[in-house]
User: Fold Multidrug-efflux transporter from Paracoccus contaminans.
Amino acid sequence: MNLRHHLSATFLLGLPLVGTHLARMLIGVTDTVMIGRYGVDPLAALVLATSYFVILMMLGSGYALAVMGVIAAARARGDETQVRRSTRMALWLSVVHSAMVLPVMWWSGPILSALGQQPQVAAYAQDWLRVMGFAMPATLCAMALNSYLAALGRPNVVLAVTVAGLPVNALLNWMLVFGHLGAPSLGVTGSALASLAVNWMQLGALAAAACLLPQARPYHLLRRLWRPDWTEGRSLLALGLPIGLTLVAETGMFTGANVMMGWFGAEPLAAHGIALQLAALTFMVHLGISNAATIRVGTAHGRGDGQGLRLAAIAATLLSACFALVPMTAFLAVPEMLTGLYLNPGDRRAPAIVALAAGLMLYAGLFQMVDAMQAIALGLLRGVQDTRIPMLLAVVSYWLIGLPAGWLLAFPLRMGPPGLWLGLLVGLSAAAALLMARFWGRRGRDGGPVPA
Assistant:
């Protein structure tokens, strides 16, 4: 295959994966828009609560992401047993992780208060997190099944299940947040209950697909599911935990920025949440291409095809870089129009929040390209099962460079909220440079990057 064929194959595989991530993100956007119209304090609480949830979810999602490359390589070798063993233990580790993080979600209010958040905002956030603690196992197990089905060449099924959840989530939010159709008006708690129901429904649909699809039947995924495979579990733990910690390092940088933004008050925090979600929405495209890169590179890695691995990596990088130009232009050209969609125009605080969020969109536009490159680099490294050194590079970039830079610019240098975002740009730039250097700097005699 030449580069043109690799571009086509990566695009066709990545398109439904991009759609899946966008649909999943749009579920979160629906929650944010509805809570934003319910009130500013609940919106600020949702920004904090979702960040808190995401960082715990990311820590446990490494097993689902690790298994994607493992399955691709095992299928390339014709090893059906490895496919089944790895996926089962990804499900096991997801459930164990969910049980371990439930207490810190249940008692999240005191933790957020200790981090300097306003009491009412912390209380609303705890209400949301207590409900969503019971959505964690469904979320993580669904991610593992997403990886399984995508690696089997059926990402379109994952897309269909995720898109089907969009109208259900919107309807349940409308009912439970505002109290329509005879339902109680529960505000933030109602939004969490809607997400809880949708996550479990989606897991059921994915489990059915993983058992019944023709491509999946030969693997007998759920046969003796209750029987743990500790050898495979340890192997997947060693591969997946660094991925989870890498994601935590990145997510933690943004969560740290959320906490520091909360020190400025509810209005700057709400503006920050709006700008951050718009940036995260475009990031879903790069994440989908990154997943496709993991599968494509993992398949070439399993075959020992160094030339195919190199071309697959170039194709993913080019696709992501080309797309990054689109949101960059939109964020710089029409920021007020985009940020204004999130708030009730009748709210007296809305104009100030929209103006601040629009100013932050400048930085969101600037970091589109570097955010894309660090995401693609991580996907490529996962494809060759290189996870430990990238974890360390991510920690250095996000926690030792990005977050301190944001604090320094925002507070001692008095740049305020824009300073925090400039720090995020610095951290993402460092990650993109270091991770790309890691992938392309490790070459074997066949000309392709090799794992550690």
In short: Residues 444-452 have pLDDT under 50 and may be disordered. The radius of gyration is 21 Å.
